[in-house]
Design goal:
Blueprint lengths: L3 E9 L2 E3 L5 E8 L2 E3 L4 E3 L3 E3 L4 E3 L5 E4 L7 E4 L2 E2 L4 E5 L7 E3 L3 E10 L3 E3 L2 E4 L3 E3 L3 E3 L4 E3 L4 E5 L7 E4 L2 E2 L3 E6 L7 E3 L3 E10 L3 E3 L2 E4 L3 E3 L3 E3 L4 E3 L5 E3 L10 E2 L9
Parallel strand pairs: 1-3, 2-4, 3-5, 3-6, 4-7, 5-8, 6-9, 8-11, 9-12, 10-13, 11-13, 12-14, 13-15, 13-16, 14-17, 15-18, 16-19, 17-20, 19-22, 20-23, 21-24, 22-24, 23-25, 24-26, 25-28, 26-29, 27-30, 28-31
Length: about 260
Amino acid sequence: STTMTVTNTLTVNGTLRLPNASTTVYSFTINGSVSMNGPLLVHRNLTLSASGTLSANGYNVDFLDTGDYQSATLTCTGEFPATISVVKDLNDYNSFTLASGCVATTTSLVGTRTMTINGTLNLTQDAFLNQSLTLGAAGILNGNGFVVNFIDTSWSQSSTLTCTGAFGATISVVKDYNNDNSFTLASGCTATSTNLLADNGITINGTLNLTQDVTSERDFAVGASGTLNANGYTVSFVDTAWSQSSTLTCTGAFGATI
């Protein structure tokens, strides 16, 4: 039942059997063989090299943060042998990146900073993000029917969704903490939204498909490359407080009734 904590970088070139309880490391490089006998808690980076093997034995690898500047990257080739959990919610400093060529399945995807998917990520439940999500050119998100929620819990938590082609999950945008946070769908990205609310404005530079009515308290812009497919739903401009003037910007016919 002994725990192990490594406060710097741990590199394994031989064989390591981890304790029969949780192991905490800040950065972990596996070039040899590692056997897990409890959860593996990683604050920063985990690299499983081409020569390395990780026997998860049914345990999770959890990426979490306990302080500032604990951004993390998971690097592997092919399928990562353990289910991962990503909870980077301590502050706005800590991000998560899944490296190109790495395929992972996550039980949790929670972050107050940016998430970057350059490999393939499989969701097994809804994700909750306070800031931006980027799918790189080689990145794939398999939503499996789950929803990626863009939310805010503080100031300075505007979000941008960046992808190429169809985004792999339905999105929900509820940015209602204050008048500081907006949402942008980047050019070239196609997404379907169940909710769309951002107190500091919405910008559509890609293609957005609505599945219900939208309420906007500030500006709504459809860029030159943007498309809004309203599917019969309405965009309503309302106010709930001071300083909520609205401007609707588009080129040609707006895709919804207002």
